[in-house]
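Sample A.
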Amino acid sequence: MYKTLLKNGLLKPKGKMKMNLQHFSDRTLYDLKMNMNTVGKQLQKIENDISVKAADPDQKIEDIQALQKSRDDMKLRFDVIKQQHDEMEAEERKQFQQKKQFEPSTDPKQQVTEAKASLFRSTVRQSPVSDDVKQALGDRTGEGGEKFLPKTVANDIIVEPFVTNQLRAISTLTNITNLEIPKQNFSLDDDDFVDDKETAKELKTTGDVVSFGRHKFKVFAGISETVLQGTHTNLVANVERALQSGVAAKEKKVAFTTSPKQGEEHMSFYRTGSTAIKRVKGKDMYHAIRRAIADLHEEYRENATIVMTYSDYSEIIESLANGSATLYAAQPEQVLGKPVVFSDSAENPIVGDFSYSHYNYDLGVLYDRDKDVKTGIEQFVITAWMDHQIKLKSAFRIAEVEGNDTP
């Protein structure tokens, strides 16, 4: 047995109980398993010999003690080999899991996720983004100049509908550079074809073409070190969720703000002045909304939707129900006569044809990185240009309760 251990490099030539641990690093896991099996069998044999001789009164106690010492030596050898085996096995298992986690996938959807993750990691770590990643995500520049966000990522962030901005389900959304569109979908050779006098007046005053501008904004997606080093799926989900939420928040803010920034007044439904949307009043919110619907020209009334807060709707239900539970089970459209979209940003209910509410993203979307030095969080940053045009104000009404005058 001693010669076997010596030959396998587990003992130094002088026979000391000192293990050649350096030799373990050069051995394979299979070798360690074989050695552990060999030493384990020898240990079991010695244990059996001790049991047999201990039960034999004719055996000398010195022989039994010698066997016990041999057993202890063999046990030490077994424990050392097992420790090395367990450590190597754990390391190989870890490497296998990492390799499996980050190895290229054959699934097209997973390949896109992996490419997105590579883009986010490379940007944050300030390392070059490979051409393969850009091509996989639909790089539209091909020149390696400005850091434009690849087409796939840009579409997922700014074009694909996202539920956080409730207007996306009913408004128009495009991604066209220098967009100009007619306010009316069609025209006739008869100058008097527009039945709605308010629409005709608006077209005469403001023209029949809408030109979209470029209003820059940035969205920051914070990435912790643990997320950055985690799986592709978690990284992409975290970054895209943050960017989509930021974009949606910007869209809602410009559309519903009552105090828009200079140059962004036209984006808000609640703008005041000569170009404001007509406000219709009623003795309570229910009657104000019903009057606003009726005040719309039939061309817009047919496709009208009500955007309001859930709290306003709840007050209407409480007032109409008058103690009855039946009305609480009714759909909002059954109560108000038109489809309802709830948004806490709608200070006053907006009634109208929201196909005339149009978001357009101009130019390509730039991406970059930043770092919050206070928290140490890395930031994946996008810069986008967006405009929101209310193509025809006459397609909308704002419902107000009498006495709640807007300054």
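Sample B, a different protein:
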Amino acid sequence: MAIEVRIPTILRTYTDGEKAVAGSGATLAELFADLETRHTGIEARIVDEGKLRRFVNVYLNDEDVRFLDGIDTKLSDGDSVTILPAVAGGMV
């Protein structure tokens, strides 16, 4: 099962600069574990204690997985997953 995972700039150090990588898994949890086997350290930036990190948004085919089944959301061949960590900043 091939799933395209779009990687934000801030996490591309884990994917050797790649904007998108392929992964596999029946659920998001399995997909992130699969990514970890090739891109060491990336899973810890997305998942904390078996749940999506609070400030990481994940979209499955442009739909926010928090409104689906979260990290247990089922995946299908050809799906597209986008990871978007929240970024804050500005002047104080």
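Observation for Sample B: The mean pLDDT is 93.
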